Amino acid sequence: MVKLYDGGAYLVNGDTIVPETEAAKVESLTGKKVCKDEARKGTIAYGIMEAHNTSGNMENLKIKFDAMASHDITFVGIIQTAKASGMEKFPIPYVLTNCHNSLCAVGGTINEDDHMFGLSAAKKYGGIYVPPHIAVIHQYMREMHAGCGKMILGSDSHTRYGALGTMAIGEGGGELVKQLLCDTYDVACPNVVGIYLDGKPNPWVGPQDIALAIIGEVFKNGYVKNKVMEFVGPGVSSMTTDYRNGIDVMTTETTCLSSIWRTDEDTKKFLTTHGRADAYKELNPADVAYYDGMVYVDLSTVKPMIALPFHPSNTYEIDELNANLSDILHGVEEEAAKISQGRAKFHLTDKITDKGLQVQQAVIAGCAGGNYTNVVEAANALRGKNTGSGEFSLAVYPSSQPVFINLTKQGYIADLMEAGAIIRTAFCGPCFGAGDTPCNDGLSIRHTTRNFPNREGSKPGNGQMSAVALMDARSIAATAANGGILTSAEGLDCWGDVPEYEFDPSVYNKRVYYGFQKGDEEKSLVYGPNIKDWPEMSPLTDNILLKVCSKILDPVTTTDELIPSGETSSFRSNPLGLAEFTLSRRDPEYVGRSKEVDKIEKARVAGEDVTKAEPELVKVYEKIHTIAGQEKVLPVETEVGSMIYAVKPGDGSAREQAASCQRVIGGLANITKEYATKRYRSNVMNWGMIPFQMKGEPEFEIGDYIYVPDVRKALDGDMKDIKAYVIGDEVKEISLYVADMTEDEKKIVKAGCLINYNRSR
Q: Which of 17, 261, 386, 493 is most buried, by the most CB atoms less than 10 A from its CB?
């Protein structure tokens, strides 16, 4: 059972929930008068944020982090941006892992060129470099850097180390650049929602099951959006820390800002095992702590779960699904038809057999599935079994070489291989479409983090469509033991026999480059032919003219749809090369439209007559001159840019390229009803685009122009009612607004991007 409380709640003595409407009970329980503002300070999250805040004002935080982490499809752009902004060294431990493009399988030398760039940057600026296949980013940070009371920033949305007492946040590269320049992470103090865990999970229930049960309840109503999830209650101690890590990493899929867990002796044991006993300290809420919401989870009632395509919140109990296969799967097929827009077909009901649902592929991998405990449980289920010689296949990726070594020494790798599983090295590819792409019309079940449309690597534009359902490693193993027929782990009796883990850091000692505080400015960065500098971007003018280049009316638009993952990741170090893929799976004509607008802006910057570059602007400006006060507006003084309308963009990845790809080919603004995540909105601003919103329906179409006068002045105002004009057959006034921005964010947008802003300083 997962129950959401209406409104806020108090937690008394760590084990009693009192709804805010019954606050008088708090006084009777404690004998003290309750003060809500003081009780807010009693959360674990508040204490950690206060210790890292440099503003002196807990309403508006300016955070400095203890460490940072990036992987090989984000660190090149971050370092290039910071270098262009004047960075001379890494001021805090900055870990550069190589776990996304580690196969070096696409584009010739360009993946390994990025790796060599990262190593050279670690030597020059004083970084920590983890070579390919050694560890996935988040497992390495758990093992070597997370600690109680710390804060870590990562350029990957699944940067979550809450189960180790660390508040970790995944953001776009711009926010990491700010830390590299000794600036701060500026955010209004987030609300904190308590996740009260009670009871104990059944032996056949894994961390993914619990995570999916929570995600299914809180995602669609935005219950924890941009908030901190604080895990408390006696149920925390019913699970090992390795198990908790598997739940914690999935909190990203709720759209929360960060997470934190109370710590206990098992947390201490985990850190001690990894040679870092000094990183432990007890973290618990105060005797009275106020939470802005409360989620009650009875762990004993959670059953094996599945998240069907195309979102981690599309959750069902596996037993429920198996009892209603035809009806439920038909609904997924209808959603697939909308996603593919007629370019490809995807079927699930044809996979229903007299034995059950036949699955084509299974994967246990990455920061969610590749943990020691999960792989051991999978091996226990498959020992002596046979995954079969048919269409079904199973691949297992241990999350780090130390985990792999321990599994090998204890014989679990042999058990899996003898059953027919394929064992691979630490790699994040199955999470984002760079490895194990299923066959066309195939269904893959995965203990990974996401199952967004086509994230697994299929290309509807090429007539391909496959999909992923998320499950726990235990039910995946049960399915594999049943020849690929979807099976709940509850049907097996082999769970809970997990020996103590022994951490062997020798591979890290031999292969990881530890360069923090050892930078040598005389060293040179090593560039490959695909590593390009960021193109120049224009500063914001007083008035702007936007051309609508895409209009997306889906309820949610993921970052995967804004800029696809998978094979496109090879071009993350080439801004203009990557931008060619922008919206390619959602609106293939967008890039061409935006680039035409960019030509106009480049002509304006060069001092040319833009009406000659684009004759239709003659009539556009004639209509602009009919607007009161705009009679003397000059095209040469008015920035021109493309614009995307989307209802709710930015769910999913932290990748800044979802915004930078818009910007480098002419993007100047988005108009939305709301932004799915803070991180995507931050990326938009860091790349010099205006994050407009509107309350009404969009009364404009692709190809229309929208004129926004006095936009710089509007950014200096309350931004609640910004007059804009749709320039069509007639001039139509509309109202836009911009949610709160910090003063620095306003300066960044006015400068045209974070690089411009930093250069001007």
A: 261
Contact 689, 662 (CB under 8 A): yes
Instruction: Give the ranges where 31-154 is alpha helix by DSSP (H).
Output: 36-40, 44-52, 75-84, 110-125, 137-144
Q: Do 594 and 735 belong together in one domain?
A: yes
Whether residue 545 contacts residue 613, with contact meaning beta carbons closer than 8 Å, is answered with no
- pLDDT tens by residue, 150-182: 999 999 999 999 999 999 999 999 999 999 999
In which order are the strands placed within the sheet that holds 667-672?
A: 690-693, 667-672, 638-646, 543-552, 705-708, 722-727, 731-736
Indicate the residue type of 377: E
Distance, CA of 272 to CA of 279 (rounded, Å): 8
Q: Rounded distance, CA 146 to CA 166, Å?
A: 6
Q: What is the CATH number of the domain that holds 104?
A: 3.30.499.10
The pTM is what? 0.93
Phi, then psi, of 305 in degrees rounded to 5? -115, 165
- Residue-wise pLDDT tens digits, 724-750: 999 988 899 999 999 999 999 999 999
Q: Which helix (H) or strand (E) holds 244?
A: helix 241-248
618 — pLDDT class (breaks 50, 70, 90)? very high
Q: Give CA–CA dist 692/711, Å, rounded.
A: 11
Residue 701: which of 737, 665, 732 has the closest Cα?
732
**How far apart, in Å, are the Cα atoms of 176 and each of 91, 148, 754?**
11, 21, 11
How distant, in Å, are the alpha carbons of 284, 320, 586 from that of 260?
10, 32, 35
pLDDT at 494 exceeding the cut of 80? yes
Q: Say whether both 139 and 157 belong to one domain.
A: yes
* CB distance 669 to 688 below 8 Å: no
Which residues does 310 contact at the CB level (< 8 Å), separation at least 6?
Answer: 332, 335, 336, 339, 451, 452, 453, 467
Per the CB < 8 A criterion, the answer to whether 641 and 596 are in contact is no
**Which of 2-11, 276-285, 485-494, 564-573 is predicted with the least confidence, judged by mean pLDDT?**
564-573
CATH number of the structural domain spanning residue 13:
3.40.1060.10
Per-residue H/E/C for 39-61: HHCCCHHHHHHHHHECCCCCCEE
Nearest to 443 by CA among 466, 471, 477: 466
The total number of structural domains in the chain stands at 4
In a domain, 516, yes or no: no
Q: Are residues 692 and 556 in the same domain?
A: yes
CA–CA dist 714, 26 (Å, integer):
46
Containing H/E element for 396? strand 393-396
- Report H helices in 644-677: 657-664
Helix, strand counts (H, E) of the chain? 29, 32
66-121 tens-digit pLDDT:
999 999 999 999 999 999 888 999 999 999 999 998 888 878 898 999 999 999 99
**Per-residue tokens: 442:** 């195939």
d(CA 658, CA 662): 7
For residue 381, is it left (φ>0), alpha (ψ between -120 and 50) or beta?
alpha
Q: Which domain holds residue 634?
A: 543-760
